[in-house]
Amino acid sequence: MASKSFWSQQQDPDDPLSQALQPPLDESPEDRAARLRQQEDAIRVSKEIDDDIALARKAYERRKKAIKILLLGQAESGKSTTLKNFQLAFSPSHFHKERAAWKTIIQLNLIRNIKRLLEALQEEWESSLQTTTAASIAKGKGVAGRTPSSPGVRFSTSKLTDNHRRIRMRLSALLPIEDELMKKLLPDGGAANKDVCVRAGSGWKGIVSALSENTSTLGPVVPVKPLVSALKGSSNSRPNTADARFKDNPTAVLAACKDDIVTLWEDHIVQDVLKKHNMRLQDMPGFFLNDAGRIAAINYEATDDDIVRARVRTLGVEEHHFTMESGALPGTEWYIYDVGGSRSCRQHWIPFFDDVQAIIFLAPLAFNLTLEEDPKVNRLEDSITLWREVCSSALLAKTTLILFLNKMDILQATLAAGIRVVKYVPSYGDQPNDIANVTKYFRDKFRGYHKRLSPKARPFYWHETSVIDTRSTAAILVGGKSRVPIPASVAVRWE
Ligand SMILES: Nc1nc2c(ncn2[C@@H]2O[C@H](COP(=O)(O)OP(=O)(O)OP(=O)(O)O)[C@@H](O)[C@H]2O)c(=O)[nH]1
Ligand SMILES: [Mg+2]
């Protein structure tokens, strides 16, 4: 049966509301025109509201049918890296659309690496300062290659030379650029953090893409040569690259500094200083110094591998929505929730617990490391505590839990360096300190908690992996048989 519209219902002459809405008998033509206009506006607004409700209902239905996965784990466990692997494997066009944004992040990562390097040099100069005495002059001690002239003069005993000092001075031109970019990414402060940070929902990819596009359109006209000479010429004062032409343009300034960056990083005296200060920059998240010659080039484009390795600390919870282009279930809609893993972020996880089919829990077997936010807490112990909470949560009783024992490459390197598990985990005892035994030991611990603490029996899915390796991760994501209610089996092994 056709239903009457709201406005036609008002035409019933016996209805008191209709009577109240009737125009006055002496209505002037102007009043009538105004009344009709008001009616039209009201109909338009009502239609807009109906359309919005229909859209929201459609989005709700779509989301209900979509595959929803939550990535959990402590900070630096590899959640965002796993997300990038999902996008690369199943939604490459979405992944590639974000290339420009990632370029700026990788440049920022490189600048952070350089900042750490410069800090190490500064520490070396400061820790090797001595004051001359008449005796030291007699022995000819002083700055490398020079002899102090009179008692009471402070000098460095370090092997670092004046040339290192000059390079450091020139490279300090990169620091204001980093400050500017970080202010744009995180206006309420983030420069103090070790990593590049972004706040979920802040639209940071849009912000950095726009920056990257602006700077690449500037590409051909950016006066890199004058900038290089400006940098080379300034030996004692900080170069003026905070100049408006350059402050938003990491590409130009990095290109101008490229030779200095490569020279400094490859210098054996600098490497000795890093060793002496126990600084392994190569273990830092977002380490790109080995690729500085390529990344600091004026025509640099981020590769897939660079993007996967780039480090951005997640603050809050980011929802990523995409349609699977290839893989087991093409055309399906996916929602992946990527959370910040540091302790202060964990209270934001709970609202997402009742809406996801599967959780991928990332746990690097970092038995010898401590949390950045609380250096008293062992990372692996923290992961196990978190895993126990997730397993025992009543809200997650029906959720499939998939454990990724991640960063196996780092575990391999740690064991190869002779670091013994028993020193950090006494219960490991005198079992062999090799990858197979160590992995089995910890995997059994995770499995035991899963079995004992799950509110209802459920299968245990796990992978030993290095999600930084896109090929092997794609094999995990795409290759398996589906035995769980999520596509393409992100969980191929079970018990
Ligand atoms: N060597 C190695 N590095 C990895 C692996 N997985 C991730 N990483 C690196 O570890 C760092 C942290 O990874 P993310 O994916 O950003 O960690 P996250 O869990 O999202 O961290 P938060 O956002 O702080 O919670 C990045 O620099 C990654 O490149 C791995 O399997 N091996
Ligand atoms: Mg993250």
TrEMBL record:
The keyword Metal-binding applies. Keywords: GTP-binding, Magnesium, Metal-binding, Nucleotide-binding, Transducer. It comes from the Eukaryota. One of its GO terms (cellular component) is cytoplasm. One of its GO terms (biological process) is adenylate cyclase-modulating G protein-coupled receptor signaling pathway. Residues 1-33, 136-159 are annotated as: Disordered. The keyword DNA damage does not apply. Coiled coil: none annotated. GTP binds at residues 406-409. Residues 8-25 have a biased composition (Low complexity). Mg(2+) binds at residue 314. Residues 147-159 have a biased composition (Polar residues). One of its GO terms (molecular function) is metal ion binding. InterPro entries: Gprotein_alpha_su, GproteinA_insert, P-loop_NTPase. PANTHER family: GTP-BINDING PROTEIN ALPHA SUBUNIT, GUANINE NUCLEOTIDE-BINDING PROTEIN SUBUNIT ALPHA HOMOLOG. This is Uncharacterized protein. It comes from Ganoderma sinense ZZ0214-1.
